[in-house]
Amino acid sequence: MASVVRKGRIESERWQRLDEVRLAALCAGAEAPALAAESVVLIPLGLWLVQRARLACLALRSAVLLNAEDDPSPLLPHLGAVSRIAVHFARFADGRGYSLARVLRQRHGYRGELRAIGDVLRDQLFYLGRVGFDAFELRSDQDPHAGLAALADFSASYQGCSDQPAPLFRRRAA
Amino acid sequence: MYVYDAIDQRMVDERVAQYRDQTRRYLAKQLTDDEFRPLRLQNGLYIQRHAPMLRVAVPYGMLNSRQLRKLADIARRYDRGYGHFSTRQNLQLNWPRLEQVPDILAELAGVQMHAIQTSGNCIRNITTDHFAGIAPDELVDPLVWCELLRQWAALHPEFAYLPRKFKIGVSGSPADRAATLIHDIGLQAQRSDDGAIGFRVLAGGGLGRTPILGQVVREFLPWQHLLTYLEAILRVYNRYGRRDNIWRARIKFLLRAKGLEAFRAEVEDEWHWSKDGPGTLTGAEVERVSRRFTRPVYRRLPDSGELHRQLAASRAFALWHERNVHAHRVSGYRAVTLSLKRRGVAPGDVSAAEMDAIADLAERYGCGEVRVSHEQNIVLADVAAARLHALWLEARALGLATPNVGLLTNIIACPGGDFCSLANARSIPIAADIQRRFEDLDYLFDIGELDLNISGCMNSCGHHHIGHIGILGVDKQGSEFYQVSIGGAQGAHAALGKVIGPAFSADEVGPAVECLIECYLARRDSDAERFIDTVRRIGLEPFKEHVYGKRRSQGTHRVRALATA
Ligand code: SF4
Hints:
The complex is a heterodimer of chains A (174) and B (565).
Chain A: E1 4-6, E2 9-11, E3 16-17, H1 20-27, H2 32-38, E4 41-44, H3 45-57, E5 62-67, E6 84-89, H4 96-107, E7 113-118, H5 125-131, E8 135-137, H6 144-150, H7 168-173
Parallel strand pairs in A: 3-4, 4-5, 5-6, 6-7, 7-8
Antiparallel strand pairs in A: 1-2, 1-8
Chain B: H1 6-27, H2 33-41, E1 45-47, E2 52-56, E3 62-64, H3 65-78, E4 82-85, E5 91-93, H4 101-109, E6 127-128, H5 143-153, E7 168-171, E8 185-191, E9 197-203, E10 215-222, H6 226-240, H7 251-258, H8 260-274, H9 283-291, H10 305-313, H11 315-324, E11 325-327, E12 333-338, E13 349-351, H12 352-365, E14 369-372, E15 378-384, H13 388-398, E16 412-413, H14 428-437, H15 441-447, E17 452-455, E18 469-476, E19 479-486, E20 498-499, E21 504-505, H16 506-523, H17 531-538, H18 541-554
Helix pairs in contact in B: 1-2, 1-4, 3-12, 6-8, 7-8, 10-11, 12-13, 14-16, 16-18
The complex binds iron/sulfur cluster.
């Protein structure tokens, strides 16, 4: 059973990935009422950009889905209006999502939820948390309690990052 | 030598605990090989040909005697009683057991050491000049900057899964003994006209299959911006570097694909938001880190007349003095290289007993510190001139006084096929054969300065591209062959060598090197013209002629038609 580590707690709500047919139906207004009750729906960036006006009218909770290779620039002007973004890790060892998170948070000031999904494992959680993810949909075989514990693997860090923009040397001085 | 504070210590301790748990889960089959691989690599552990190999970080090459004794102790208790110093100033243990690595890391943490990021696709150990802080030609002491970079790079959350490994080298001297041109990022510390410290930033250098020298991305970066600017470079690389082809994944390929101008523009754009932000270094922090370095207390020493008498009295001492003793910025002091290049021992190998002995020498003749050079030797940085002779006698008794620094037998070689699973060919026997052929000291000194580098495969850990003579192991239908290049150089006039022709079998390499040397001695302008100068002046042809012509005329060897591309 896959779980989500979020805000220091273990939750079970996963964001839903729909196939293209259902996404099309959703944008046509056909699927929304049923889904709305269920859970947050992931809308791939490309589709979200085209359909965002329409999506906004639906009684639906949605999240923008970014893949590691996506260029987030078209999303940036709307960032203030977005409250959920998911970054999908196809492979845990693909580090692009780390920089993407930092750019969204620190360069563009994104304040909503930033969720890591896909190949998300316990051993990457500490760094993911530092670069700006605040929710982690663990791969289904992962123990959520271990995931929660991993966020405290280190009690200090040298560098400033999204979670703590001031590097250690500035905090030491304070 | 930098001394940890409580937070530095806590971080390495927590790293050990984290890795202990990861190892436990791997052994309990809760982590797959693929999941465990980057975790163990970023803790220094490779799986090699015969056994795992653990690469211990020696940050910018500095060790104190206590640490060296601990390494000796670890080599004895967890390994086969010796270690190998690599061209990246680290120490490699060739036979640790995977289950014991957490214990080894805990022992290291006990003496303020670690193996963090010595391998894997992350920011690796920072390297610098082995004469940092003591070289008379130094513009800026790089040590404090290296430590600031070490802390910044250590456990950096954003850059643990880069497209490929990432190496940073720092030099504070125009002679560039840190080989900054062959690093992913090379930093050349400078002073502006008004005395302010800054760095020339180079990027995209590297050896490997496609050797390229770094290009200048920024001519003068004021020190305050060091970390934010480096983060901008790394972020551009992390986002856009190739991940589909491991042979095209280093930053040099990104730089080449984008072009220098576009790359620079991208970095500047990325830098823009963090510039002057909280990551900007402060004078207080530089000062704090600087104060955590123990510094030798120099006395006022007369430049000893005794030394001149000793030099006149012993030719062997004079030869050693000529090659292995180096100038020091403080009058009355010298730096000394203890050569780990002796016949019969693999270049860079050092036994536990030797580590202990070197630790003693460092305490008795220096300030209890040693440096590991990228030429795989040990440097004692602060020796009083008057005590050189006594040190030489002791070093000689230990077999550490081969007077060959900068000479042909000071061979730089990777572990090669005897240890490394990636190798095409062995490098250690080739080094041994060449050392044997040039054992005669008069001949060796007559040949003069010459860098000879050997790599067992295109990964180029032995830096063969920048050897005056470079030897590269290649595989030809399952047997070991060696490509020979000449004309490479390190330092401020770094250059990449060119292959002279078809590859040689193992027993042909030594004779080929002899031919190159014969040709050089016959063609050199005077004793003062070094091998590399002659190559630059007359080009490759005469050397080719001599090597392959001679081979043909002797009729003993068939020229093997191996592609030399
Ligand atoms: S150059 Fe090749 S053979 Fe030598 S150590 Fe590196 S990977 Fe191994």
